[in-house]
Write a structure and sequence with these properties.
The protein is an alpha/beta fold and 382 residues long. It has twelve helices and 14 strands.
Length: 382
């Protein structure tokens, strides 16, 4: 079977925006729309710069959190692998004898005004994913014993962690643009498969901030480095080094470590080699998920939903129809999709693909983060 790719229609507004900013459509109407987005991007830049300048100048004071904070963030509109990177760093901090907690805003979370903490309490593990968001639910499953907290005002969430758990350090997921709060380390993730050198600022492109703002970061972590074209990755690193000279770079990959059925039964990795697979995903970078399955030897067709999409019974009907149309033998989903998967069976196996972040180069930079964490904890409790 050819590596075809099916694509579910996104929300109309997002579909229009993606077509417009891609530059592939050169029709007069789309060109005019692109000019309007570029004008809006200039206004966005002014607001962003103005807000950041208020904190840099001291006219607005940054808050000091109740626990030391490491931020893992990015410059683009999602899809860089923050959840997997956060789980990796939390695991390494635990191995070093530290006690991390994780704080998220919680995309589409319905937490209300009070923070929600997922911890060892079995009742908290059973919270509806719509309350905490899919990423928090997944992190809580991946990291038993590590408190995961969700809330809009991150300072308040961290205070609750300090009060109600034994955490002595916090990983702030998606915190690079959270200007209002101090942290001792900023890690920025960049997807190595995407050349962001010529990307424009939102809404004319996918950048949340200009590339020059990388100078605020302490480290860059390239994700999916094993899937990137080596020449493109080399050019991208050279470009970023010119922008932020001396900024340490870590190269990583998302390594598939386990396959299991949705009921938890383990599946051998060899099981999908040379088999037809429908890869269903609602993540920021579905191409990387599909490519990782191809590296295992599967013949992959992709069915893509919007990031953070919550699956319904109707979706399952659509997925089953697509699987049969492509003569797929398995449906494969990510662990992030699994926490939102309906309690309903398909007439073929649904395999959950679990992966972990692995370091390709720059291991010494991870050791540096851990050492800085020890120092920050020591200074905090002096």
């Amino acid at each position: 079977m050819k590596n075809q790719q099916a694509s579910r229609q996104s929300a109309p507004l997002r579909r229009w925006w993606e077509k417009t900013v891609s530059g592939r459509d050169t029709s007069p109407l789309t060109t005019a729309s692109r000019l309007l987005l570029q004008a809006a991007s200039a206004l966005y830049w002014l607001g962003l710069k103005g807000n950041l300048l208020l904190y840099i100048s001291g006219l607005k004071r940054r808050t000091t959190p109740m626990l030391p904070v490491i931020s893992i963030g990015n410059l683009t509109m999602g899809g860089t692998g923050k959840t997997t990177a956060t789980a990796f760093l939390a695991g390494r901090l635990c191995q070093a004898g530290l006690r991390p907690g994780i704080v998220l805003r919680g995309y589409q979370a319905q937490t209300g005004r009070e923070p929600v903490i997922l911890y060892d309490d079995p009742a908290s593990k059973r919270r509806d994913t719509t309350v905490t968001g899919d990423e928090a639910s997944l992190l809580s499953q991946m990291l038993p014993g590590v408190p995961v907290a969700v809330g809009k005002r991150r300072e308040t969430v961290i205070a609750r962690l300090a009060q109600d758990t034994n955490a002595n350090i916090v990983i702030l997921d998606d915190g690079f643009q959270y200007f209002r709060m101090d942290r001792f380390t900023d890690i920025v993730l960049i997807d190595a498969t995407v050349d962001i050198s010529h990307q424009q600022l939102f809404p004319a492109g996918y950048l949340r901030e200009p590339l020059t703002h990388l100078r605020r970061a302490d480290q860059i972590w390239f994700t999916h480095s094993d899937l990137a074209d080596p020449a493109q990755l080399s050019r991208l690193k050279d470009n970023l080094r010119q922008i932020a000279s001396g900024l340490p770079i870590v190269e990583t990959k998302h390594q598939i470590t386990n396959l299991r059925l949705v009921n938890g039964q383990s599946v051998e990795l060899e099981k999908i080699r040379a088999r037809r697979v429908l890869a269903v995903s609602a993540i920021g970078n579905p191409e990387s998920f599909e490519q990782s399955l191809r590296q295992l030897g599967a013949a992959v067709t992709g069915l893509r939903y919007d990031d953070h999409h919550y699956y319904t019974a109707r979706d399952l009907q659509e997925i089953a129809a697509a699987a049969h149309a492509q003569q797929a033998e398995f449906v494969a989903i990510t662990a992030k999709d699994a926490v939102k998967w309906p309690d309903q069976e398909l007439d073929m196996p649904v395999i959950v693909v679990e992966c972990q972040l692995q370091i390709i180069s720059g291991e010494e930079m991870i050791s540096e983060v851990i050492e800085r964490a020890r120092q920050a904890i020591g200074e905090h409790y002096d």
